[in-house]
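Task: sequence in, structure out. Protein: Polyprotein.
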Amino acid sequence: MDPGKHNRTRFTQILVVVDGFSRLIRTYPLKDKKATNGKLLQYIAWAERQMERKVKCVCLMVEESSGEMEAWYNLHGVEFVDLSKGASSLNLAERAIQ
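Result:
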């Protein structure tokens, strides 16, 4: 989600995470897109501690594939699903932020 460059804050991007297990919605304001991977890993670690379960799957709409993140998913046994724009599985997130 892109709030724009001239929004009177230092944040230019927003990461919206919808947990498929608990339906918890978290938003993270980001200074740039490069911070997305770090925040996502931070959320995964938090979710695993809170739910006492391993994350099995991460579904993202990705503009550019990050080999570093794909390697992390493979190393930790997390399935990565790249969603295209307009995919029906995005409807929950879209409805939540409207």
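The two ends are 12 Å apart (CA to CA).
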